[in-house]
Design goal:
seven-stranded mixed β-sheet; single chain; six-stranded parallel β-sheet; Rossmann fold; 328 residues; elongated; alpha/beta; 2 domains; 45% helix; 20% strand
Length: 328
């Protein structure tokens, strides 16, 4: 009797320990990040820090109840396809991704994988969602540009370089939103009697040759449209514009802080913070189809006076007064 009582006691204690251990080890949820950047890019690290901090504030900690699989493509076409396929096979509960080329690759790999996207210019035109209010599929997220930015870029370029009559537009033809963006730019240019010369970003050497050829004629300017390739090659583009004495308008803050003349566009970091809210809701049972696509409302302008001086450009005081940041 004593032996049976002792064994029952041990068994009960074991069950109690197992229950405690189970309570101390919460279920680990699995998500993925599919990025057009490289892991070493300081901007990528800034984005991930903002996203993970927001996730932590919502109760998700990468050391406790959240596992994150990362795939960094550096906007390489082969890596985009390869990693999209890998992620579809891993089947994470949600994938956070950025840029139209990456959303498209994920949807081609799987039509059911839940996706939260950021930094997408035209989610409807790119075929990623049925409508902004009712996405209708497995993807939702945050758009960062509408095509009205095109007119604004030209207005800013004319203010810093009033004599501009020709503009080279750096764009990625593979970007699903690129055709719509370029069309809007051409329409805005026509209204201002400015000639547009598209230059592809796909091949770095060809891009440089195209911009150099463009810069041989006077009264030229440069507009860099948002894409993964533009961001990955931003140092090359910024140095090329300065070397060729081309006044340039860029889509994100870090182009200006990195030496570009002027940037006008959405706060990309803010989108990653907001994306955490959608990832959280999907992990808690919401469907992407029921979460409306939201448009970025936080826009910022940054002016680099050091670059302006190097280009012999005088920035109007009215423009400096409107800038969110001025780099001396």
């Amino acid at each position: 009797m004593k032996r049976r009582y002792f064994l029952r006691l041990l068994w009960g204690a074991a069950l109690g320990c197992a229950a405690v251990a189970g309570a101390q080890q919460p279920r680990v949820r699995r998500i993925a990040v599919f990025s057009y950047q490289s892991a070493s890019d300081p901007e990528a690290q800034l984005y991930m820090a903002a996203f993970l901090k927001a996730m932590q504030q919502l109760g998700w900690n990468a050391d406790q109840n959240l596992h994150v699989d990362y795939r960094w493509t550096a906007s390489d076409p082969d890596r985009i396809v390869k990693y999209a396929t890998e992620l579809s096979e891993l089947s994470p509960e949600v994938v956070l991704t950025a840029g139209g080329s990456h959303v498209g690759a994920l949807q081609r790999a799987s039509r059911t994988l839940p996706i939260v996207f950021v930094q997408v210019a035209d989610a409807v035109g790119g075929g990623f969602v049925t409508s902004l209010a009712r996405p209708g599929g497995s993807a939702t997220g945050f758009t960062n540009f509408d095509f009205n930015f095109s007119t604004k870029w030209f207005e800013l370029l004319r203010q810093v370089a009033p004599g501009t009559t020709r503009v080279a537009v750096l764009e990625d033809p593979r970007n699903p939103s690129g055709a719509g963006q370029l069309g809007a730019i051409q329409a805005a240019a026509t209204a201002l009697s400015i000639r547009v010369v598209p230059v592809s970003l796909q091949d770095a050497d060809e891009m440089q040759r195209g911009v150099k050829e463009f810069a041989r004629q006077p009264n030229g300017g440069l507009i860099v449209t948002p894409s993964g390739l533009a961001i990955v090659r931003r140092d090359l583009v910024i140095s090329l514009a300065e070397r060729l004495n081309l006044p340039a308008i860029y889509p994100f803050r870090y182009f200006a802080t990195g030496g570009g003349l002027l940037s006008y566009g959405p706060d990309a970091v803010d989108q990653y913070r907001l994306a955490a809210g959608y990832v959280d809701r999907i992990l808690r049972g919401a469907k992407p189809a029921d979460l409306p696509v939201q448009q970025s409302s936080k826009v910022e302008m940054v002016i680099n006076l050091k670059t302006a001086k190097a280009l012999a450009i005088s920035i109007p005081q009215s423009l400096l007064a409107r800038a969110d940041d001025v780099i001396q």
